[in-house]
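PT: before anyone asks, these are the final sequences, not the draft ones from last week. 144 residues across everything. Please model them as a single complex and drop the result in this thread when it's through.
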Amino acid sequence: MRYRMVLGKNIHKYRMKKGLSQEKLAEYCGLHRTYIGAVERGERNISIDNIEKIANALEVDVTQLFHNERGH
Amino acid sequence: MRYRMVLGKNIHKYRMKKGLSQEKLAEYCGLHRTYIGAVERGERNISIDNIEKIANALEVDVTQLFHNERGH
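LR: through. Structure below.
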């Protein structure tokens, strides 16, 4: 499924922008570090509630996490 | 969680625009009618793969389903 990958790449991008480790981001979200890693690699079928937690921790809007730079 | 509600309202809106019943949309997505109803009411913690299936069936971009008309 394509959007898992878009989401993973964007989470990685915004995490780097904030200079956060996966561990630190995980701590801010109340999620596990290995889960964040798997989401960034598009391996997990993440739910809307967890997407929202990550967006809040990264201080971005949820829609920013779905933006596909390569277009449609 | 706020985005469940945004998503539910937008799915309902675009389903109405296409003149689809919950049953018909469910059929197009390979999901169950009662599940679509629950998602529209913000009752389910829907996953990214199912969000993508619904967006494809409604012929909208995933980001359109997260657009919050009331702003932030």
